[in-house]
What does this fold into?
Amino acid sequence: MKVTVKLFASFREAAGEAQRQVDVAPGTTVGQLWASLVEESPRLAPLSGSAAFAVNRLYARPDASLSDGDEVAFLPPVSGG
Amino acid sequence: MQQATGLGHSLFEVTDEPLSVDRLVTSVLTDGDGAVVTFVGTVRDSHWGRRVVALEYESYPEMAEAEMRRIGIDMIEKWGLHGIAMRHRTGRLSVGETSVIIAVSAPHRGEAFAACSEALDMLKATVPVWKKEYFEDGEVWVGQGAG
It folds into this structure.
């Protein structure tokens, strides 16, 4: 399955990219995808515990399963307003 | 921007353009309103004793607008509002510039004040926008720790 991964703010800086397409096996959860991204980008590791997840622009739990074509976002603690 | 029935006179937008209170008041105001309450968020010159030189706001715009709309619908239903507008600016802002405006219209001022305050609290808790503070000697993403 192909999903689009979006990273923002401190995560974007740590990973060195804002967006990319990723291949994932069926049944992969958001949490598992995050763990594999953190493993690839060591600079994400110290920040990884504070991540919130979104799938198709809605907040999602770590155990949410991904589907082909999903847009997955990894969000640091928000600070708008 | 008129939304579907139930949203009244409402607008939810992330933009990199300067924000105007007058425009948002006009967008929410209807003949049935006795009150329009606005919140204007501005860039302050210091944080934790350090002098702020500038702020930079980043967003996930599609989700931010969806979250603001969700908050707006909540507030309209809870407080009986006629309209609510939330506009957040992104990009680099100097001290004194406006980062966010919320405008709320209602028949009476009690509901308008309460809804504006609650909408702001909800925006700050869930809307995917991030603020980076630039000091003379460094920068940090708010809420993330030293950078």
